[in-house]
């Protein structure tokens, strides 16, 4: 009769536990990815992450993941603060006769202050008009207030679909939109002393329109610079 060989098991984790740990880790990555595409809710985020606490995974000795209470901030507080800021700037725009050229909207990611390009620049140019600096000075004073000085800021340049002609400085709308946004950023940082670690700029050419590029009026709407004051919950996901 053939003797059965009893294999000696070494003192490591069982093979099935390793496979199970890999599966749990992949599931975690999958759900975090799905969550990143959805509207962020701090309470839901903590609930999702807490479901993984204490489970088998790649963390040694089953160490649980601690979710800081202030990780995503408080969107309710953000919304109130941004709503107040929106009202103040709207009042300033109306008093300055710029109501039709400055629009404000509180969106999921924060407060968007939208300036028509003609406020800041001449057609096809990226140098700030002298009169535009007074407007930026006013906005900067608000953003440097105690209640807003920790907020992250994005400067976004946009154009219409008309091609750029007769310009060696700006070969395409990519360069024009990016340099316009950068010049606004540089003024806010270098002149108005907004901290450089809380502000960034991007140029989107004509790829993020707010209206169809089929009429002169709509193209004028798309030629714009947006100053976005981000909600705390969005700072993790925005560049």
Keywords:
single chain, 239 residues, 5 strands
Annotate the secondary structure layout.
Blueprint: H1 15-36, H2 42-50, H3 75-95, E1 102-106, E2 110-116, H4 117-120, H5 132-143, E3 153-158, H6 173-191, E4 199-203, H7 216-222, E5 224-230
Short structural summary:
By secondary structure, this protein is an alpha+beta fold.
Explain this structure:
There is one protein chain. The radius of gyration is 25 Å and the shape is globular. The model is unreliable at 55-65 (pLDDT under 50). The chain has helices at 15-36, 42-50, 75-95, 117-120, 132-143, 173-191, 216-222; strands spanning 102-106, 110-116, 153-158, 199-203, 224-230. The protein is an alpha+beta fold. The termini are far apart. It has a 5-stranded mixed β-sheet.
Portion in strands: 5-15%
- The ordered string of helix (H) and strand (E) elements is HHHEEHHEHEHE
How are the strands of the biggest sheet laid out side by side?
1-2-5-3-4
Helix tally?
7
Rg for CA atoms: 25 Å
User: How many strands, which pairing sense, and closed or not: the largest β-sheet?
Assistant: 5 strands, mixed
Q: End-to-end distance, in Å?
A: 71 Å
Structural class: alpha+beta
Mean pLDDT: 82
Outline the low-pLDDT stretches. 55-65
Number of strands: 5
The shape, in one word, is globular
Helix content: 25-40%
